[in-house]
Amino acid sequence: MTSEQESDAIWNKLPPINDRITIVKKSEAEISQNKADITILKPTQKHVSTIEGKQVMQIMDNCISKILLVSALPKIAGHIAYYELLLGGEICDQIKEYKAASNEYDAMLIYNQKEENLDQCKLKKLKERITNATRQIIHCMLAKPEITSALIKHYEEWKVEPEGAIRDLASFMVQLRFTMHYQLLFSPQETAKKEEFLEQTRRQEIKQAQEIRRLEEQQDLMIKKHNKVIETKIQEIELLNSCLISKEEEMTAKINEMREKYLEEYNEAQHQHMKTINVMSEEAAATKRQYEDEIAPFQKQELMIRRQKWILEDQLHTTIKKMDEQLFKLQAKYDETQKEFDVESREYESLNAIFEPLKERYDEVMEIRRKEEEARQQAIKEQVELVECASFITSLYRAYMARRRIRLERKKGIL
């Protein structure tokens, strides 16, 4: 027999019962307000304390494990080689016997459906054989906890997940186990408190129902008052509607009158418009005739101008043709002159190449002469400066001697 821990992989994934009481989500204010009351509905213990309760939970776990193992038998029998290493030789032999009995049972059912005669005795023996084989297989599997644990905990890896009605049955059994586990967690004192709390809740519901009836009566009175106000408003609306209808009739009469007046004015304006159109049509016809009479001499004059233009174009064409011929001749002369110029340019370049050394020698001689001339001019300049200096010194000396002679004469009394 498997323990409670070995079957946790299937049913411990579901939420606990107290979290699945309702699917309506409450607001945080309601949760905080009723937190003290809701704790009464939750058990204080987390594990079943009584021996009888543990035995009940053990029986439920074994029952769920057997359901899951029985649902896996057809898949295991169909692929016995895949599970041979896990199950062992003894269980594989029993599964082969179970498979043979199942195939024989299916063949008999198919044959009897075609022949429409059913051997009940033989069919009953096959059922007992399949049932006994199933019991032996399940007993052997439960005797080896590692096999049961592997198939139940790792059902996806071993590809033994239950399907269809057997899956629903296993789910219902798991829900029943949770319900029983939830009920077994309550002690007698907690049960009494829970019943007392439920009684208080019932009394509060009665008070709330009375309050609701009182509020409904007040609501009826308010509705009646509101209906009276609505009736008065409806009467006022009817008066306003009658006023609006009378105003609408008056406005309709005024609009009809304005429309008739507009139609009269429109007809008169249209008559005047037709007269104006006739007058303008006559004026347009007269203008057209006058235009045709006046345009004839202009057309003749235009024809004469066009003829003169054509004559001038012919003359211009002949003149341009003559100018083209003259330009062609001038271009030929220019080409010949250009050739002569090119020849003379080449000759000039050759002469320049010949006279280039002479030019360099000439430049050297001229440079020497320039330097000699500069030296001669410098010597002349220095000579002139010497003469000027001597003349200046002589004049200074003569002035000094004259002043000295005058001073001596003054001393002697001559002057």
TrEMBL record:
Keyword Protease carried by entry: no
Signal peptide: none
InterPro entries from the UniProt entry: DRC10 (IPR042815)
Matching CDD domains: IQCD
Subcellular location: Cytoplasm, Cytoskeleton, Flagellum axoneme
The entry's keywords: Cell projection, Cilium, Coiled coil, Cytoplasm, Cytoskeleton, Flagellum
Taxonomy, superkingdom: Eukaryota
Coiled coil: 320-382
Family classification: Belongs to the DRC10 family.
Alphabetical list of PANTHER family matching this protein: DYNEIN REGULATORY COMPLEX PROTEIN 10, IQ DOMAIN-CONTAINING PROTEIN D
Biological function: Component of the nexin-dynein regulatory complex (N-DRC), a key regulator of ciliary/flagellar motility which maintains the alignment and integrity of the distal axoneme and regulates microtubule sliding in motile axonemes.
Protein's name according to its UniProt entry: Dynein regulatory complex protein 10
Species per Swiss-Prot/TrEMBL record: Hymenolepis diminuta
